[in-house]
């Protein structure tokens, strides 16, 4: 026995309602995720600036999040400071925050947060250990060395991970 036309229409309308409710629930869930965790869904890498100061006496380069977007866990895989010697012969990565693994700090990195990278040849607190900052590099810090703050993550809609330099600070004895 064949169903009537009204049964076919009723079935189609029922399927449309289910699909419409599914889309409403999906959109609501997406909106709630944005409100509760704004950093979780990022359409582009964070827009943040960093400042730096170098203390020649202690041999410490301090980098500070100076403003802009917080570095959130959701889209971020890591925030790394790449310290490069002025002659370009030596470079060392210092992981500020990362998903798993060894990192100096935890998410989020917000305005005012800082990391201190020290010179391994200076024992600024005279404790017999030259490791006095949050991290150390394998070479002496001098004028002209650079520290690049490099973000790696996956912004919303990106086909894969993106790596971008957020800011670069140059070591200067007067800073």
Automatic annotation (TrEMBL):
Keyword Transmembrane: yes
Keyword hit for Membrane: yes
Domain of life: Archaea
Keywords: Membrane, Transmembrane, Transmembrane helix
Sequence intervals crossing the membrane: 20-43
Protein name: Archaeal Type IV pilin N-terminal domain-containing protein
Organism the protein comes from: Halomicrobium zhouii
